[in-house]
Amino acid sequence: MRHRFVRNLFNEILTTSRIIKIALIIPFIVLLFDAEIFYYSWTNKEKTILIASGFVLLLSILEIIAVIKEIHEHISGIKRKEILMEKIRHIAEDMEKPTVRKIMDTFIKKYGDEYSVNEIYHAVCDLLSDFSNK
């Protein structure tokens, strides 16, 4: 329980694509260089470099936080769509001749305000497209 946030964060990062992982590694590399410059300016007591490197170090940390937030939002959106598609699939399999309107009406009656109409519509169209391709 103490480390649930960190475990969830690492699970999200590990389940992302290779490109997103690279996009997360690059800010850490920049952060290492910034930290080295900051340490150099600290030990040599160079005030102008210290201020500038401190500012860049802060920006690097903010960039890492922003990338992690984007990864979290991306993974959350994917999980939400998977859950929506599964619910719609169960509804469509119970119908004899499913149409977009029938599925949407049944879904909205059953699940109410959990999802927006646009989300439901696009998911139903994707599902019916998959059904017609099979």
Explain what the structure shows:
The chain is mostly helical and 134 residues long. The protein has one domain. It is 85% helix and 0% strand. The chain contains 5 helices and no strands. The protein has helices spanning 4-14, 18-43, 47-94, 100-111, 117-133. Helix 4 (100-111) crosses helix 5 (117-133). The longest helix has 48 residues, at 47-94. The protein is rod-shaped. The model has no long low-confidence stretch (mean pLDDT 85).
Number of DSSP helices?
5
The arrangement of helices and strands along the chain is HHHHH
How much helix is in the residues? over 70%
Cα distance, first to last residue?
44 Å
Domain count: the total is 1
Largest sheet report: none
The residue ranges in which pLDDT falls below 50 over 5 or more consecutive positions are none
Strand content: under 5%
Number of strands: 0
Q: What's the alpha carbon Rg, rounded to whole Å? A: 24 Å
Could you say which structural class the secondary elements and strand pairing correspond to?
A: mainly alpha
Instruction: Work out the oligomeric state of the chains in this entry.
Output: single chain
Mean of residue pLDDT values: 85
Overall shape: rod-shaped
List keywords for this structure.
mainly alpha, 134 residues, single chain
Secondary-structure topology with pairs:
Layout: H1 4-14, H2 18-43, H3 47-94, H4 100-111, H5 117-133
In summary, what is this structure?
The protein has 134 residues and is mainly α.
